[in-house]
C-alpha cells in the first residue's frame, strides 16, 4: 500500500520533507504540491523530477481525489484553515508546528477532529522521535535518576533571518522545548516566568536575545530554559535533567574527535535540518505508516493546543515580567493516549 501525499507550502521544511519522502522513506509518494509562489513550486517539482501535479491552492489540493493525506508546511498563520479543511475531507494531516497561532484556533481543530470521531492530525514535534531524547526519556521512565527536580535546557541557533520577529523566540523556537519537556516528564506546566539577561549586540533592535524561560510543572519540576538565537557558534540543543539520585544529559550528535596539531576538536552542527535529520525521517515514516493504518501515533492536536496555551503564557510573562499561570482545558478522553509514540 502507498500513501499519496499532497504538500502545501514547499519552502525550507516542505522541500526537506518532500526529499525524504522521495529518496529515503517508504510507502509514501508526493503526488501533489502547492505554494503561493507558483514559480518556485514549478522550479522545485522540476528540480526533484517529481511526477506531481501543482495545484492552484491548498483547498483544491485537499479536495483532490488523487490525494490521500496532506502535509502542511506553509507559514504558521495559514495552518489552521488547511488542517480544518483536511479534517472536513476526512484525510490524515501532518501539520508542522505551530498547529495554529492561537489557542482558540487549536481548540477549533480539536473540536472538529472530535466531531469527526477519529484522530486525523499529527503535529511536527519531531524531537519525540530523536534517538537522544528517547534514550533520555527511557532513563527517566525507568527511574534511573529518581524523581526529576530540575531540567536545564538550552536552544541555541547560530543566527536567525531579519524576518524573525520578537515573539518568534517563543512561538517558533522555544515551542519545541515546551513540547518536549512535558513529554519527557509526563507532566503538565502550571506557570511560567521569563527573564531577560543582558542582550547580545548581534540581535536586531526589536529582539530580546537571549531569554531565560522558567516553567514549573504540576509535580513541581522546574525547567530552566535558555533561548539564544544568535549564539554564533552553531546549532546547539542541550538538556540536562537533575534528579533525586542522579543526573542525565541529552547526548550531543555523534562527531569525529580529531586530534591534530596539538589540538583535540569536534565539529558542531549549524542548523536544525542536520541536527534532527534522523528524527524528521522517523517522524514522517511513522506518520505514513500510521496514516495507512488509519491511526495517529505521534503528537496530536491536543499537544498542539497545550503548546499554544503555554506559548501564550510565555509571551504574557515576557511582556509583564510576572510569573504567569498556565490554564489548560481538561484533556478530553478522545485524546487519552500514550505520550510515547511506538518505535517506528
Ligand atoms: P518557508 O518560508 O521557508 O516556507 C514556507 C512556504 O510556504 C513558502 O514557500 C511560502 O511561499 C509557502 N506558503 C505560505 N503560505 C502559503 C499558503 N497559504 N499556501 C501555500 N503555500 C504557502 O518556511 P519554513 O521554514 O519552511 O517553515 C514552514 C513551517 O514549518 C513553519 O510553520 C515553521 O514553524 C515550521 N518549521 C518547523 C521546523 C521543525 O523543526 N519542526 C523547522 C522549520 C520550520
Ligand atoms: C525553526 O522554525 C525550527 O522549528 C527549528 O527547529 C528551531 O530550532 C528554530 O529556532 C526555528 O526557527
From TrEMBL:
Pathway info: Polyol metabolism; myo-inositol degradation into acetyl-CoA; acetyl-CoA from myo-inositol: step 1/7
InterPro entries membership: Gfo-Idh-MocA_inositol_DH, Gfo/Idh/MocA-like_OxRdtase_C, Gfo/Idh/MocA-like_OxRdtase_N, MI/DCI_dehydrogenase, NAD(P)-bd_dom_sf
One function term, GO molecular function aspect: nucleotide binding
SUPFAM superfamilies listed in its UniProt record: Glyceraldehyde-3-phosphate dehydrogenase-like, C-terminal domain, NAD(P)-binding Rossmann-fold domains
Alphabetized Gene3D superfamilies for the sequence: Dihydrodipicolinate Reductase, domain 2 (3.30.360.10), NAD(P)-binding Rossmann-like Domain (3.40.50.720)
Domain Gfo/Idh/MocA-like oxidoreductase N-terminal positions: 3-125
Entry superkingdom: Bacteria
Alphabetical UniProt keywords: NAD, Oxidoreductase
Enzyme nomenclature, EC number: 1.1.1.18, 1.1.1.369
Reactions performed catalytically: 1D-chiro-inositol + NAD(+) = scyllo-inosine + NADH + H(+); myo-inositol + NAD(+) = scyllo-inosose + NADH + H(+)
Signal peptide feature range: none
Domain Gfo/Idh/MocA-like oxidoreductase C-terminal: 137-323
Enzyme's top EC category: oxidoreductase
A GO BP annotation: inositol catabolic process
Subunit: Homotetramer.
Family membership: Belongs to the Gfo/Idh/MocA family.
Function: Involved in the oxidation of myo-inositol (MI) and D-chiro-inositol (DCI) to 2-keto-myo-inositol (2KMI or 2-inosose) and 1-keto-D-chiro-inositol (1KDCI), respectively.
Entry protein name: Inositol 2-dehydrogenase/D-chiro-inositol 3-dehydrogenase
Recorded name of the encoding gene: iolG_2
